Amino acid sequence: MRVLVVEDDPATRDLLERHLREEGVQVEAVADSQSAEASAATGVFDAIVLDVVLPGHDGFQVCRRLRTRNIDTPILLLTGRLALDDRVRGLDAGADDYLMKPYALEELLARLRAVTRRGRSRQFSAVLSYGPVELDQRDKVVKVNGEVVVLTVTEFRLLEYLLMRAEKPVTRDELARHVWGQASGPPSNVIDVYVSYLRKKLGPAGLSHLRTVRNVGYTLTGRYA
Question: CA 131 to CA 23: how far, in whole Å?
């Protein structure tokens, strides 16, 4: 499971991130609404844990803005507000569930499992495409020129992130964070090896469109085809 944690309090954020990692969850943690929206827009997360009280836009506004952008990742709101109106407001903004502070880690994990099990129920497009390559995020199917290509889980995540950032250079650090869920790894040569695997599996489309950006990383582009 890949989870985006949005929490402005450093101690709470670090604690939550550590506990989730101990449970085998891949975590990216950010502290403000702007970073939350930028990370959520990548679409690589299975769920978002979103605190209501944030600098900039509050959690309700972030939730609503993500939904208006057709970002359908399940959202679990965290808040210390007890009023029923606040809970209703969060759900009306597009949240999938609501957890009151203080909470037990076991309940948080149970609710995350529940919202991810329900899946992305909103009827947004789940297909990413670039040239002859299509990736169905919901059914986890990749096709090139209409033919199914079998990828490993890591190869799928790698292609998914590159498709979301098509025509833009993607650094190795970004790939480490969004594909492997690590801030500092894996080593660059491991990323390079997986890109090579992916390029071969995509065939001529991989050779034409999956390009190396010198001293930066990689990009999907048709400009050099």
Answer: 38
Residue-wise pLDDT tens digits, 75-110: 999 887 655 666 777 778 888 888 888 888 888 888
Enter the pTM of the model.
0.58
Q: Distances in Å between the alpha carbon of 184 and those of 108, 155, 163, 173, 223?
A: 26, 19, 22, 7, 31
Together in a domain, 55 and 159: no
HEC-encoded secondary structure of 8-69: CCHHHHHHHHHHHHHCCCEEEEECCHHHHHHHHCCCCCCEEEEECCCCCCCHHHHHHHHHHC
Residue 193 is part of a domain; what is its CATH number? Answer: 1.10.10.10
Listed residue (198, 193, 189) closest to 161, CA to CA: 198
CB 43 within 8 A of CB 2: no
At position 75, the amino acid (one-letter code) is I
